[in-house]
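Table S2 (text version). Query chain:
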Amino acid sequence: MTTTPYLNGGVGEDEAAVMRSRADDFSMRIMFAEGSNYDFTADVPVVIADARGNPIFALDHAGPLLYVMLPKGTYTVTAQVNDVAEARHVTLDGTHAEDVVLHWNPPSDSETR
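Corresponding C-alpha cell output:
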C-alpha cells in the first residue's frame, strides 16, 4: 500500500470541530455511526480498495471521522462493527470531495436471542 495522507479522530466536540475545519483538504470524508440517532462510533477497522479490488489504504482503529486524500478514481470502502460489514462504492471526480456515511443499526431483540 502507498502512503496516503489522512486525518482520523473526531472523538468529542472539540476534536470533531478541528477535523471539520480541515475537511476541505481531503477528497474522501468518512463518518462511522451506529444506532437510530447516528451516534459516532470509533475503533472501526476500515479498508479502501481501488477499482481492481487492490487494498490501497487500511486502518485498524478508524473513526468516528476519517478523512483521506485520494486521487480521481473509483473505490470501495469496507468497514466492520460487531461482525457486520458495510461497504460503499465511491467515485472521486478529482474536483469535488465525497462524503461517505457507514452506519450500523444495533441488532433487534429477536436477533440477539
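Notes on Table S2: Strands lie at 6-9, 28-34, 39-40, 44-49, 55-62, 65-68, 73-81, 84-92, 98-104. Confidence is low (pLDDT under 50) at residues 109-113.
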